[in-house]
Design goal:
The chain is of the alpha/beta class. The chain is 48% helix and 14% strand. The chain has helices at 17-34, 52-63, 81-96, 113-119, 125-136, 157-170, 198-207, 213-229, 236-253, 257-260, and strands spanning 40-43, 66-75, 100-108, 142-149, 174-179. A five-stranded parallel sheet has the order 1-2-3-4-5, covered by helices on one side. α6 (157-170) runs parallel beside α7. The radius of gyration is 21 Å and the shape is globular.
Length: 269
């Protein structure tokens, strides 16, 4: 999500390279012995498509195949289309040769528009959308989106769900989501209390399908998030933390949260 603010360089305590190297060596030793038993392998990040370990994993599977293993990458898709196509073609070869059971790609996206580019600083929706629509055409991939619901993402979530509706006309796209747990606490949508997001959740639920059992469970979960918010009143302590964070965020990044989230300014404490 919006993530921790960039650390001051003079406060950084570097991890010793030997420690990182030791951990990685132990990991590959474990994989050599146990990979054949895995049914699902997730690669997160950082950004997996920038990590050298992805290439190493592809080479590893090429020699140590496991037809029962599903491989999932969680990515923000902020990579060049050429780089993405190159990695996907290598993974496809493993699937075609039955060296893996299945490949899933889970793209991180929370809402849409300027709000999304603020929340995931560095994300360019034009690049994200281009890459995602390329993946839509790779129908052998099990494609998903995963979103984090926070105080900053709810009001532009309907725009994302309208895009999801269009994508699903072309092929199935999984939809997974959750609130900001375990934190930061000031990003949880309930800190503003009841009433603020009523119309937004009404629109969100209208845009969510209600056909399959999976659809029904997703709607029920989304309704549960809305219901939980309705149990709360505004938390001024957490709101003060939020505005402190946003102001510092703007100072460091030369952004302007007030222009991106004008509806939020009335709650400044």
């Amino acid at each position: 999500l919006i993530g921790a603010m960039e650390p001051r360089m003079d406060n950084l305590i570097p991890i010793k390279n030997s420690y990182t190297k030791d951990l990685e060596e132990k990991f590959w030793e474990w994989m050599q012995t146990n990979f054949h038993t895995l049914q699902r392998f997730h690669m997160l990040g950082g950004e997996p498509f920038y990590q050298s370990q992805l290439d190493k994993f592809i080479s590893f599977v090429d020699e140590n195949h496991n037809i029962n293993c599903e491989f999932n990458i969680v990515t923000n898709l902020m990579i060049s289309k050429k780089n993405l196509e190159n990695k996907i073609s290598k993974i496809k070869k493993l699937i075609v040769q039955k060296k893996l059971k299945r490949f899933d790609l889970t793209a991180s996206i929370d809402c849409w528009g300027n709000e999304q580019e603020y929340v995931r600083h560095g994300l360019d929706l034009t690049i994200w959308k281009t890459n995602f629509e390329y993946l839509l055409n790779e129908k052998w991939i099990k494609l998903n989106i995963n979103q984090t619901i926070s105080i900053l993402t709810i009001k532009s979530m309907p725009q994302l769900l309208m895009h999801l509706r269009q994508w699903r006309l072309f092929r199935n796209v999984g939809h997974y989501f959750g609130v900001t747990e375990p934190g930061p606490s000031y990003m949880r949508p309930n800190v503003l209390g009841r009433g603020i997001f009523d119309k937004d959740f009404t629109h969100i639920l209208q845009l969510m399908p209600d056909v399959t059992e999976e659809d029904k469970r997703a709607r029920q979960y989304m309704q549960g998030i809305a219901n939980e918010i309705e149990k709360n009143t505004i938390d001024n302590i957490e709101m003060k933390k939020l505005f402190t964070f946003l102001n510092e965020n703007d100072r460091r990044r030369s952004t302007n949260w007030r222009s991106t989230f004008p509806w939020l300014e009335q709650y400044v404490v």
